[in-house]
Design brief:
VC0802-like; 8-stranded mixed beta sheet; Rossmann fold; alpha/beta; 2 domains; elongated
Amino acid sequence: MQNDTAVIMLSTIPGLEEITANDVKKLLGEFQVRRAVPTPFDVRGYLLIEVPFSKRIEVLSKLFHEGRSFEHVYEVLFYHPVSEHTLEEINNLLCGEEVAGSIERLFSSRYMTFSVVVKKEVECGFTSRDIAASVGDTIVMLVQKTLGFKPKVSLDNPDLCFMVQYTERYLVFSLDLTYGVSLGDREYRRYHHPAALKGVVAYLMAMFAGVDKARRVLDPMCGSGTLLIEAAYLNPNAEYYGVERDKNHVSGALLNVEKAGLKDKIKIIHGDGTRLEEIFPRNYFDLVLVNPPYGIRIKTNILVLYEKLLISCRKVLKRNGKVAVVTPRIRALIKAVKGTGFKITRKIKFFHGGLYREIILLEVG
C-alpha cells in the first residue's frame, strides 16, 4: 500500500457492486478516486476505493453524510497475498511496520479497547475464533512494543473494531468505521412493510433503471414507499406516484414519505396496481419501478398476477417507457413477459434477504 493513498472498503449488496462503484465514483468525483474495484480480494458484496490520503477525512465525511448505496465503511490498514494458510503466516504478516504504524496512530489512549471480527472465506485447519484470538494477541503485542501499554479487549462496546478477512488468496486487515450501525438504515422508515426492500437495494435498483432520466415515475405496488423515496433522492426533479391496495400500507407509506421530507414530491393512492388504466391517463409514465409480491401467502397465481401487472403497466407507459421489476420468482416473470408487448433489455442478479433475486428491465417491444 502506498503511503500517500487511503484505501477504503465499502460493503454493499452482493451482485450489485458495479452499480455501487458507479454511484460512489459520481459521489466522490471531486476527490480524484484513483481506483474503484468491485469485489476486491475475491469477496462479493464489497467495493474498494483508493483516494489521496490528504483527502481521507473529507472523503469519509462525504461517504457518511451523503452515501446511500452501501452499508458499512472500512479503512483498509493492510492487505497481502497468502499461500501457507497457517496462523503463523497471519501473525508474521501483521507484525510488519505497516500494521505497527497504523496501530500506533489508532491507539491514542491507554484506556482504548478493541475487538477483532473475522470473516473467513477459506477452508483450513483452524477456525475464525482461532484467527481472532491470534490477531488479538498480535495487536496487544504491537501496542505494548510501540506505545508501552497493554490494551484491553471489549466484545460489547470496543473503541476500535478491527476486521480480518481471510480468503484463499488474501489476508485483509481493516478498521470498521461503522461498527454497531449500518448506513443502510433509513431514518425515514417509521412504518415497516413485511416484504420491504432494503433502502440500499431500492436506491441501486432506481439507479440501474435510469430514474435520473425520468420525468414521471410510478410504483404500482408501493407498499411502504421505499422504492419511490429512494428514487426521489436520486432524481428530485421528477414526479412520483405510488399505488397500494392495502389501506394500512397506504397510511404507512404516507408516514414514511412525510418523514423523508418528500410529501410534495410523492403521491400515494389507494388502488389496484393491476388496474392502473382506471387511475391514470394512457401514455403517462416514463418509468415503472415495482417489487411485486412473490410469497406463498398470495391468494392469486403469481404468473397471473405478473401478467395483469405488466398489461396494466403497458397501458399507462409512454411509447419509450420502461419497467424495472425486482423478484426472486424469475421464471414466472420471464413467462409473464411473453404476450404483454415487453422485451427484456437488461437484468442483474443479486442476493438479498436470504434469496437470490433479479432486477429485470423491460421496454416496450
